[in-house]
Amino acid sequence: MRFATSLPVWMTLAAVMAGCAPKIPPPDELAQRGALEGAGLGVYWQVDLALEENETVARLDLLGNDLYCLTSRNRLMALDAARGLWRWTLTSVAPGERVFAPLHVDAMTVPTHLAGGTPDRPGLEVTAKAEPFDAVIFNTLTSVLVVERATGKLAMKVPLDFAAATGGAVAQDPSGRFLYYLASVDGRCHALDLSRALSLWSTDMGGAVRAAPAVYGGVLFVADENGVLHAGLSETTGPKGLWDSNRTDSQAMHGAVLADMHVDEHGCFVPCEDNRLYAFDRTSGKALWPALVC
Description:
mainly beta
């Protein structure tokens, strides 16, 4: 039996708080009560998710104009965020397995014959002939999945020989390879070459890692549960250390890093369990401003 579940969307700048599940009245009731009008807001669209019995929405991820809805049975649904139009549903992950947050890669060129997770590895000739496509990538505890963003077709599934502890980050190196970085439950950071479905390297971070690595401008950033942020150049044999937050000219954090960081042209921003938000210069590791007490 299917249950019609409406997903109302409000056009607003909002902070989504994990773990909170407030009871939301129907959109019509909200409009009648003037709850949205008073804030200058209104219902933009709603869509019937057609969930199965006892199936619930586990997580929403907004990437550009794509809204991804993951259900408690690991069905991944993609919708047009601007119009509420259904795009596709992916059912390639077994129920009960943890699914980490997705990310987008444009014009990705990887062979698409590994969707079944076959151990065969594509040769350089096959890789060179791969046609580019826009992808959405995510990993579970046991594999990395590359999906064609427009159709929802599974393009590649790379089995992992370790248990993943985090989601991933992806970057294209100077040779054109698409590299995927993630951490395992034993505190190691791993780099995978998605172009050939190969493991490049793994390195011990010196502590458990629960926040997804980040990569920007050829530099890999990894923060651990000891409250240390590591930055290093990503190379074929492993990251070449640039700095870490325990250096005297950086700023020490006083708690575990469990939530994902954000890195862009302005700097590296890290939320810490000591209730502070830290900001680091990407190249030197120096503090951009005093830690913000939250």
